[in-house]
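2024-03-11 09:14:02 INFO receiving multi-entity request
2024-03-11 09:14:02 INFO entity count = two
2024-03-11 09:14:03 INFO echoing inputs for audit
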Amino acid sequence: MSDLERELDSRRDAHREALFDLLRIPSVSADSAYRAGIDRAADWLVDRFRGMGLTVDRIATSTHPIVYAESAPVAGAPTVLIYGHYDVQPPDPLDLWQSPPFEPTVRDGKVYARGSTDDKGQLLTHVLSAETWLATEGPLPIQLKFLIEGEEECGSEGLGELLDGKLSILGKPAMEGLKCDVAVISDTCQFAPGQPAITYGLKGIAYFQVDLVGPSIDLHSGSFGGAVTNPANTLARLLASLVGEDGRIRIPGFYDDVRPLTDDERRAYASLGFDENAFRAGIGVDGVTGEVGYTTLERKWARPTCDINGLWSGYQGEGAKTVLPSKAGAKFSFRLVPDQDPPKIAAALRQYLEAQLPPGIRMKLTEMHHAPAVIVPLDSPYVAAAADAIEQGFGRRPVFIREGGSIPVVTSFARKLGVDTLLLGWGQNDDAAHSPNEKFALEDFYRGIRASAALWRRLAADRA
Amino acid sequence: MSDLERELDSRRDAHREALFDLLRIPSVSADSAYRAGIDRAADWLVDRFRGMGLTVDRIATSTHPIVYAESAPVAGAPTVLIYGHYDVQPPDPLDLWQSPPFEPTVRDGKVYARGSTDDKGQLLTHVLSAETWLATEGPLPIQLKFLIEGEEECGSEGLGELLDGKLSILGKPAMEGLKCDVAVISDTCQFAPGQPAITYGLKGIAYFQVDLVGPSIDLHSGSFGGAVTNPANTLARLLASLVGEDGRIRIPGFYDDVRPLTDDERRAYASLGFDENAFRAGIGVDGVTGEVGYTTLERKWARPTCDINGLWSGYQGEGAKTVLPSKAGAKFSFRLVPDQDPPKIAAALRQYLEAQLPPGIRMKLTEMHHAPAVIVPLDSPYVAAAADAIEQGFGRRPVFIREGGSIPVVTSFARKLGVDTLLLGWGQNDDAAHSPNEKFALEDFYRGIRASAALWRRLAADRA
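2024-03-11 09:21:47 INFO inference complete, emitting structure
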């Protein structure tokens, strides 16, 4: 055991207290009533970084402040950008919490509090590993740049301004300030308790709203039914046409650019022992369906999908109203995989729907937002370094997993900084990130700090 | 011109004043704030019938009173039950009325007021024809029974109690009191201005709600999409499966009992000169669709249909929410034609939907309400009498039309009293029955009174 590791062990209580301090600050970003909490959380981080001797910039945005801090550059060694967020989800519904959301409480080795896993607990592992290093070993062996935003849970508007180059960092253009070799984010989950993971792929997204208009007003479904094209009937037909019986998306060309799962990937996923029964039980269903020819885990992580997110038309109240609706609409989205191109998908979708539109119906198709999928090559030296570091911190080699969701900042880092992001998640799937009784295992917190410190050392060693 | 016809002509002003008196009473049934108006309208009718020397019963129900009145039986002559309603729709939105809804105002030969066409103006034609007859010719040549309810616009709960035999009429069981040979209702429309009509068919209805439940809570559509059966996707698929590309309903057996349109009917409809361009323009669409092989009018009047009346699932607000909904639901209804049986349709539907249900989705199918179609044989002597009477009153022979809507009381009369109903509509399709600026042409009012008197005479003549 090195001096650093001994010091990390001896600081466990202090680290837990730091975590509790930050968790006590109610930095809910979506509700302006908590604005003071946002400022206090940003100030807390500024003070901590200053205490570590880093160069700090509290960047004002048109919304919530971004906290930036950097250590000194190290010639010949890589620069790592660590992203995290100090804001948290609203704590409602409060009555479902077993202990108050902003009074961190330990039960069964886990700290219960809003933000414990998402993302205060996870982001602090990197702050505290660096702090301990600086106190024990002297200067960091690589340059660290911390970029901690305050509105990840409500749209990241300020971060957008920064990444669009509208704000500066330490007096320099933002893109120059953020220059780095690789990014690290700890805001995801391990594969399972005791099985750490590196998330090497995220799906992209293309989200749409379709609005259909038929007759100019709602009509009596008796007097007009059968004689007039019903926009709700048409909507059902259009939406049903998106996915076939085999679970495959029927838009011509949709699969043209899909990068197939490799045999290695399929073997690796199969070896993970994904518990499908537990998965079903966890969401309360007795069966699942999806694209034929792929396992549930493959569909979840690595196959494109189409889901209706919202539907509306006509009468939604109690009882029976005999209305032939004037309007019908839906929100739906595709999750994309490499190398699908969202604008190409959007164009194919539009053509496909327009070709099916019957007389008497006008359609408005709105592209809400989109992002391509991202994937980190498994043969990247940074992935190898992260895997070694996790093995040191957690005592077990990580598995390589993907995630069906999107993390927009990862796409931004790839596009604007040209770097891959290492998604090193210390949380668990049942941490209730956006729900009452959010938690984070203290042991994973300490392991994460160890893995983080190991990562700085391992990346520095690559220099040699 | 007979004495009666001369007297009807000379009473035009008095009849208009009677209409205006009744229209001034705000008898809105759906809003308890208007309860005094309901009672005043019932009292007005009671007084009028008493003044005519009829035997009257003001029947209290658990909701609004029913006004019943009968003339003396005439041996060997038929008894006619005249149904109408003294309640009216709410007048909102008030600011769209050109003149106040309860201050009848004549513009361009039409009286504008709430209830003018639906149904005070139309029902009064029968009251005033009988009143004039009694004043001019002595006793009526047939027995008339008036059944005027006060909540046709809000569920007819009291009428239901009466027809279920829970209330009595003039001390006798209701079914005995309502005994008759034929029923007459004037609460529909002519085919077009200057072209009177007899509505000889009404569609039936079978109305359903389907509720689908997938995962026990809304899920993240990124993390879970493709791995879980989405109830909104399933709903779109189930609803789309109801109707084929050819506009035909795909439930096995659905058309088994459909009575085909006769060649005579199709010829008659084709000869009516239905203006499809005007129809499209009136509802603001550039085209219509429906079952292939049938004209718009045939589909509207005489072919079964399926319309979605309401739809809901997931996120309906602004912007994009990446939710995989836990629930999805819809209201939808079939309009039925003779001789389709609603319970048989319901059973076939349930079987059809259940067979398509994928793993991971639970379905609840609720039968909301249903009624079979009704049709009056065109060779009925009552239809012949009514056609002659309308020719006398309107100066033109009526055409025979059908209607896509249902009128539940017609079904009740057929089932419980075993009689056909003559639907003798004096209104026009653009009378705005449930809308601002409801109107009724005074000339149609006077013609209706003449036709009504002619009907009593013609039905009495059948006796000879």
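2024-03-11 09:21:48 INFO post-check: Chain A is about 35% helix and 20% strand.
2024-03-11 09:21:48 INFO post-check: The first strand of chain A starts at residue 55 and ends at 59.
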